[in-house]
């Protein structure tokens, strides 16, 4: 049976967001209207597509089968329209970026604000989550990662290196024994990631410097930095975040200096999508410039 593309688009949003409210935000539709549209689609197909519960909308077997066909139709639509995009450099429409929260909090807001200022018809959504994004499920149009994936049909390009150092609040340093060597860290309270919630080996900073206990931990680097700002302890911080943390300074920079990288990750099917390619170029160049500017102030 042929399906109306608009119905499939709504179905995909609900399947990916697993809720009417989340899909409604993506589609800019009232959840009640969206619910009626889903119900109408189920009636047309003669099949229940979702199991509704307080936890959200979960796909049934029939829904999972439709998801495969809907995603295939989506990819066909993308390929068909890739060559029909406007030839001007003005970007428009909606683009969603997934990123780890350090990048999302301290770099993407200003970089994306500049891009949108030059492209008034463009809508940019930043999804900050401490995990790897699944582009095959179209959770985002593109993602920023701290390591280069080696599996999947993806376009991966390195954006830039960035640096990290140990840092602490001036108030903490004034109240505790001086730090002259890594051995001295054993007498200090350490702030870092929750060990079993580190989603990428590249983020396991403390293991690299021989620390095995984390008295104050969070899965969010922005929460970690706020703990450090409050004088709670010492931790590894991004140099590019320090300009937004007055009263925090780097320590033992000769003993501990880490280098990591950001990678831009896109779905291979978007290779010919000129709009996404132009945005990716603007995003990458903007991030490189912003990291360089902020690290010079650290």
Automatic annotation (TrEMBL):
Query: What's an example of a GO molecular-function annotation for this chain?
Result: DNA-binding transcription factor activity
Enumerate the UniProt keywords alphabetically: DNA-binding, Transcription, Transcription regulation
Please name the InterPro entries in this protein's record: LysR-type_TF_proteobact-type, LysR_HTH_N, LysR_subst-bd, WH-like_DNA-bd_sf, WH_DNA-bd_sf
Keyword flag Transcription: yes
Using the record's annotation, list all stretches that form the HTH lysR-type domain.
3-60
Q: Which superkingdom, per the lineage? A: Bacteria
Q: Which family does it belong to?
A: Belongs to the LysR transcriptional regulatory family.
The protein depicted here goes by the name: LysR family transcriptional regulator
Determine if Plastid is one of this entry's keywords: no
Q: Coiled-coil region(s) at which residues?
A: none
GO biological processes: DNA-templated transcription
């Amino acid at each position: 049976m042929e399906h109306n593309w608009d119905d499939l688009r709504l179905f995909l949003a609900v399947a990916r967001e697993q809720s009417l409210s989340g899909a409604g935000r993506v589609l800019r539709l009232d959840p009640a209207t969206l619910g009626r549209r889903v119900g109408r689609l189920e009636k047309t197909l003669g099949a229940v597509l979702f199991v509704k519960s307080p936890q959200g909308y979960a796909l049934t077997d029939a829904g999972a089968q439709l998801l495969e066909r809907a995603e295939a139709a989506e990819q066909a639509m993308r390929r068909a329209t890739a060559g029909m995009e406007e030839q001007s450099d003005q970007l428009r429409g909606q683009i969603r970026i997934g990123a780890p929260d350090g990048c999302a909090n301290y770099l993407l807001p200003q970089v994306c604000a500049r891009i949108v200022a030059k492209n008034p018809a463009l809508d940019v959504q930043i999804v900050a989550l401490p995990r790897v994004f699944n582009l095959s499920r179209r959770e985002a149009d593109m993602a920023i990662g701290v390591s280069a994936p080696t599996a999947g049909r993806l376009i991966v390009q390195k954006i830039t290196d960035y640096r990290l150092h140990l840092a602490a609040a001036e108030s903490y340093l004034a109240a505790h024994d001086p730090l002259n060597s890594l051995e001295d860290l054993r007498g200090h309270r350490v702030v870092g990631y929750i060990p079993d919630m580190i989603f990428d080996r590249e983020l396991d900073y403390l293991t690299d410097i021989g620390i095995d206990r984390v008295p104050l931990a969070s899965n969010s680097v922005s929460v970690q930095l706020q703990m450090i700002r409050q004088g709670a302890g010492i931790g590894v911080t991004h140099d590019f975040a320090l300009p937004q943390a007055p009263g925090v300074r780097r320590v033992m920079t000769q003993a501990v200096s880490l280098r990591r990288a950001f990678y831009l990750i896109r779905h291979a099917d978007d290779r010919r999508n000129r709009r996404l390619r132009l945005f990716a170029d603007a995003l990458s160049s903007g991030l490189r410039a912003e990291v360089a500017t902020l690290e010079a102030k650290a």
